[in-house]
Design brief:
Length: 245
């Protein structure tokens, strides 16, 4: 297995408003290997990048993504809640992130946020865009909705898919295979050394989230996980350099 990849969680979200182009660009400038981002489907079928099902927390306005059109969403300010210097940062489309990733050679972890709201057609819409930007070979699709991953696997078995989970699962590689997923994205406390070893034996890459503490970074680098998802890109890059992993 090669060097552990550094994936910027919602972009470089400790330094810029999460899931905005500012956060994605900053991650690229800091030399992250890739980006993690969350996607939803708008009322008019566009794929947009935001964590929550509603725009409330990051824009202060009311409304669910699925009830708003892209035009309505694009008028919102998703930057100033974080700091005044990001006033007017819009909610990006998936196309914008794909274009940046294709241009900069970044890896992508697109998280399908369809575990609370189902968004029929989200999988197809994302797959179509991956092909359009030539990013299918450098992207993993993850979700807490494992039925959605099964749908992706049925549509496109060549695409890397990852089960996201929080529970301390026993031998999760069996379950991942049962779903049809090709990798696992565990909540970091559940990424026990034995789980990482078992997954590697089964040929499944492991990419824990969201790892912000230095000692955890060190442990996971030591067991050679395929990637680590973090809010602190530079901290993880420094740790990787120091350990030579
Ligand atoms: O994809 C890893 C991580 O982003 C999952 O949790 O809530 O930050 O999207 P959340
Ligand atoms: Mg996420």
């Amino acid at each position: 297995m090669g060097q552990t990849k550094v994936l910027a969680h919602r972009g470089y979200s400790s330094q810029a408003p999460e899931n905005t182009m500012a956060a994605f660009r900053l991650a690229a400038e800091a030399d992250a290997d890739g980006l993690e981002l969350d996607v939803h489907l708008t009322k008019d079928g566009e794929v947009v990048v935001i964590h929550d099902e509603t725009v409330k927390r990051t824009t202060g306005k009311k409304g669910r993504i699925r009830d708003l059109t892209l035009e309505e969403i694009r008028r919102l300010d998703a930057g100033s809640w974080f700091s005044e210097s990001f006033n007017g940062e819009p909610i990006p489309t998936l196309d914008e992130v794909l274009s940046l990733a294709a241009d900069k050679g970044l890896w992508l972890n697109i998280e399908l946020k369809n575990n609370k709201i189902r968004y029929p057609g989200l999988e197809q819409a994302v797959l179509e865009r991956l092909d359009r930007y030539g990013m299918a070979g450098r992207t993993v699709l993850s979700s807490f909705n494992h039925y959605s991953l099964r749908t992706v696997h049925e549509l496109r078995p060549d695409i890397d898919t990852a089960i996201l989970y929080m529970a301390d699962l026993v031998e999760p590689w069996h379950y991942a295979r049962h779903v049809g997923a090709s990798s696992i994205h565990p909540y970091w406390p559940t990424a026990r050394d034995e789980v990482v070893r078992g997954c590697h034996k089964a040929g499944l890459p492991v990419r824990p989230f969201t790892v912000n503490r230095q000692e955890e970074m060190r442990r996971l680098l030591h067991v050679s996980v395929e990637a680590i998802i973090t809010d602190y890109v530079t901290r993880l890059l420094d740790e990787r350099n120091a350990t030579g992993s």
